[in-house]
């Protein structure tokens, strides 16, 4: 299954448009689409090249077998050559299969991301959330202003609970995935005696959202909470508009184990 440049660009542009994107946002979306398309094209080119190599090695292997049968002599030298060729052929086939698996995983991730973005389409279009790709992970971003009163970890009545109910309805349908609920603040120190600092505030807000999602039917074993304070801004803290964007809750789609590199060799397993 392939995704064309038009589909990728259209998808990312539609996502950004709901939030009033800047030209920089649009350029970044287009660049991300081009990068993903180029990676898939490169892997497909490698796969085709390796398939051609397998065919060549198969032909050489068959030729050697025919020569062995026809000559009936100098068998040792030819058998050694044939053994080396067979080993190279097996190695090439293993590498080709690994490449095919990586390509399949990349295509599956793109398909999953696209499906999730479409499920959130109505909320994106209404401006209640936006969806971004950060370090190759899908991130659903909710402004803190929609969810919490200023300086509080208590959910607002009405809109906040309705928004999280819609989010939960989507998360419940995404099987075999874990999500990290991440709280973020601006760089203005919290002045409330209810919180030690912005780290505390961001973590408590993430915990509140996590517990609400569990209450709404999302399995608790698929959720974790984290607080980032002001360490990962998405905009400048020099303006009120930027600080407002930085005050947010992110729901991060975590990678499956089969999408991560195998590090078992590091521990001798």
Provide the descriptors you would attach to this structure in a database record:
alpha+beta; 60s Ribosomal Protein L30, Chain: A; 269 residues; disordered N terminus; 5 strands
The number of domains is: 2
Largest sheet, in brief, is: 5 strands, mixed
- Uncertain segments: 1-6, 16-20
Q: CATH superfamily of the largest domain, please?
A: OmpA-like domain
Amino-to-carboxy terminus distance: 34 Å
Q: The CATH topology of the largest domain, please? A: 60s Ribosomal Protein L30, Chain: A
Structural classification? alpha+beta
The value of Rg in angstroms is 26 Å
CATH class type of the largest domain? Alpha Beta
Quantity of strands, as a count: 5
Number of helices: 8
Gross geometry:
elongated
Helix-strand string: HHHHEEHHEHEHE
Average of the residue pLDDT scores: 81
Strand content: 5-15%
> Strands of the largest sheet, in order across it?
1-2-5-3-4
Fraction of residues in helices? 55-70%
Tell me which CATH architecture of the largest domain applies here: 2-Layer Sandwich
